[in-house]
Design a protein that fits this description.
Elements: H1 8-23, H2 33-42, H3 53-72, H4 75-165, H5 172-186, H6 190-311
Helix pairs in contact: 1-2, 2-4, 3-4, 3-6, 4-6, 5-6
């Protein structure tokens, strides 16, 4: 900020950026690269590169004045002019350097803004990809649960039919009582046959209740095993989904690191390039100003030499 504020144009851009930070809701006085870049675009335009015509004109005037003082033997005044000349020359060099640095900073900010936009797009695409993956995975789970429910109903019906189709397995005692019952009925001993039938019916009801209890237990056990298999299938599916999800997240992290590293490399190359360009441009600025003053000095000396020769 100290460097930028030494030039009115930089200060104007800085004020626009500070205003943007104050007006940005929830920013806490900070702004993003994109907002700062927009603020720079809205602020005063950067001064043109190259020498300032007014400063160069003043330098020429000072140089001519210094040469005249030197020629007239007014060396103290020539020394004072030389001091002012050096100060103005240093200020003009610094101004041009500031323009170059600001231009390069603006270029870097644009690159950084492009990187930020690229990263936002990267996250947007990956978020959509993960949302699609989760939605598809959930549809698989729902579909499997639906199939399990249908298969469970079919299994229960088939199991019930199987249980009902099995002939009852009566005890030897009941079979003996039924046999005596039929023998007595065949002998027309109906009274005794009726008594034996009552005993047989009671024993049959008892055994049928035991068989129903046994069937119900067997039914429940087989159904529980079937349900357990379905639960295991659901768990296996969820595990496969989780493994695939972790693979996606791992790939996202890897792609993110590659993207960040690539952008860091681009910025590093850009910084290195700008550093070399700065050195070359700064040297060029110094050479140009020295050349400009030397031309004035040489031209003035030639003029003075011709004047002396003509006066002779």
């Amino acid at each position: 900020r100290k460097i930028l504020c030494r030039d009115d144009d930089f200060e104007a851009m800085l004020k626009v950026a500070v205003k943007a930070a104050d007006e940005e809701p929830g920013s806490g006085g900070h702004i993003s690269f994109e907002v700062f870049l927009q603020a720079m675009e809205q602020g005063k335009q950067l001064p043109p590169k190259g020498p300032d015509p007014r400063a160069m004109q003043f330098l020429r005037v000072l140089e001519e004045y210094r040469i005249k003082c030197e020629s007239d033997g007014n060396y103290l005044e020539a020394e004072r002019a030389q001091g002012q000349l050096e100060i103005l020359q240093a200020q003009e060099e610094k101004r041009q350097q500031q323009v170059i640095r600001a231009s390069m900073m603006k270029e870097m900010l644009k690159i950084q803004a492009a990187h930020n936009k690229q990263y936002e797009e990267f996250n947007k695409q990956w978020n959509k990809s993960m949302a699609d993956f989760d939605e598809t995975a959930q549809s698989y789970v729902v579909e499997m649960k639906k199939n399990h429910k249908e298969k469970l109903v079919i299994f229960q019906e088939s199991l019930q039919k199987e249980m009902l189709s099995k002939p009852p397995k009566w005890s030897r005692e009941l079979l003996e009582w039924r046999k005596r019952q039929h023998i007595l009925a065949g002998q027309k001993n109906y009274a005794e046959a009726q008594k034996i039938k009552a005993i047989s019916d009671a024993l049959e009801n008892k055994e049928r209740g035991s068989m129903n209890t046994s069937y119900a237990g067997s039914f429940a056990k087989k159904e529980a095993n079937f349900r357990q298999q379905q639960v295991a299938e659901i768990k296996a599916l969820l595990k496969r989904i989780e493994v695939r999800r972790k693979e996606h997240l791992k790939q996202r992290d890897l792609d993110c690191k590659r993207l960040r590293q690539r952008n860091r490399n681009i910025l590093a190359v850009m910084e290195s390039k700008q550093s070399m360009e700065c050195q070359q441009l700064f040297s060029k600025i110094k050479r140009q100003m020295i050349k400009e003053l030397n031309v004035i000095d040489s031209s003035k000396k030639k003029t003075q030499k011709k004047s002396r020769e003509s006066s002779r």
